[in-house]
Amino acid sequence: xxxxxxxxxxxxxxxxxxxxxxxxxxxxxxxxxxxxxxxxxxxxxxxxxxxxxxxxxxxxxxxxxxxxxxxxxxxxxxxxxxxxxxxxxxxxxxxxxxxxxxxxxxxxxxxxxxxxxxxxxxxxxxxxxxxxxxxxxxxxxxxxxxxxxxxxxxxxxxxxxxxxxxxxxxxxxxxxxxxxxxxxxxxxxxxxxxxxxxxxxxxxxxxxxxxxxxxxxxxxxxxxxxxxxxxxxxxxxxxxxxxxxxxxxxxxxxxxxxxxxxxxxxxxxxxxxxxxxxxxxxxxxxxxxxxxxxxxxxxxxxxxxxxxxxxxxxxxxxxxxxxxxxxxxxxxxxxxxxxxxxxxxxxxxxxxxxxxxxxxxxxxxxxxxxxxxxxxxxxxxxxxxxxxxxxxxxxxxxxxxxxxxxxxxxxxxxxxxxxxxxxxxxxxxxxxxxxxxxxxxxxxxxxxxxxxxxxxxxxxxxxxxxxxxxxxxxxxxxxxxxxxxxxxxxxxxxxxxxxxxxxxxxxxxxxxxxxxxxxxxxxxxxxxxxxxxxxxxxxxxxxxx
Length: 545
Prior knowledge:
Elements: E1 13-26, E2 31-45, E3 48-52, E4 57-60, E5 66-82, H1 107-129, H2 134-152, E6 156-159, E7 164-167, H3 173-189, H4 196-203, H5 207-218, H6 222-233, H7 235-240, H8 245-251, H9 257-268, H10 272-279, E8 290-293, H11 296-302, E9 315-317, H12 363-388, H13 413-422, E10 427-432, E11 435-439, E12 443-448, E13 456-461, E14 469-477, H14 482-488, H15 497-507, E15 510-516, E16 523-528, E17 532-540
Parallel strand pairs: 9-13
Antiparallel strand pairs: 1-5, 1-8, 2-3, 2-4, 2-5, 6-7, 10-11, 11-12, 12-17, 13-16, 14-15, 14-17
């Protein structure tokens, strides 16, 4: 049932770019991070099936039984494998940590996932291209990525109704550490007698205090969580062996078969015998994976190795890639989300009532949805972020359709523009018509746009620097406008989940990335037409000298 990972050249990281149709139930001795690049997939994991769409990330932990099935013909996935033993010195609890991304989407979690995605692509690029010294760079980025996992993806609570682990941002690190220690202890010792008293003693607190603490932070009581772990860990024996149910129940720590069956039915929704009959033949032992690795040419395209350039552009000369000493902090506002709001439950729909007039958009609203971004950028050039997004509310309504989200929670262009703006640095090194460039250390971020209804070409000359850089560009276009797509769907506030996800995915900014080796007077040439806003970042790769 274990699928070995071909780690090579003594590297603890392995990357795969694959098109997946079906991968039967299996396990790994390492951590996997899945990043869906195109299409949709169903990830069968313990008690539930996760529907992952484009740009979604999910973690597969050591010994997790899981299977993958594409929704449609196939799904393109970037997989990063982490060999935990190699990081035991710096991260001794890595093998037992639980990392999660499933959460109500907001600006904070979006920004954190951007950092993780960038690290994943950087690792994949290094491993596929194998330029001189790549092993050292891969290790450096891997350590940085794991630190990101600990700092940004460790907190979670159990959603008992949906049977999933939800990501929770906890500002008190000691609380996250305590929960992690308790959960790790339960996963290590679930077959044995585990008591609240012994854990409370090890944490040097009262057992009643610990019981309240655990239930408050986990959304489930201590004993219920332990029973959940036990039925989860029984899954392997059910599908991989013919052991009697009574024997399995004893192996995972239950005092009797009846107790085991009751808890199994609660979490898996069926009797263990029924689960065995349904899943035993759908494992790697009986079925072959339907997976295709990308060719080298396809990988080069995915990682953005191709270059395009058009001559005769209006030039912008940057004098440096560094800001003055003491300057340059990210313009992230402490990680605030638009208007301090959330995108609502589950699919992101608004929870409040709307008048009938607010539920429908006219053709002029399609144009306004994008033109409001251009207007905001014009304001930004004189008043900064606060004035750029003034009067913007979280949801559209009858009296104001200048919100970040449509009435049912679809992300409008202004939402993505706000994400761009808050990710800029504070030090503006260039501000001209249609161009805002900010800098921090060995990198720049900027926005290019046409303030009028004509195409605007740009040529940005960067000073020569040693080392390797990554150029990432995102394109926000009015042709991928959620309001336009929403109108095409009939402006029905009761969109199906498939329609909602399709519009959300189609309306999100298109991103391309490429690696620049030994940058020397690099020139960025591009064109911002009247229907496109470009966000770009040129950053020095981690570990590059």
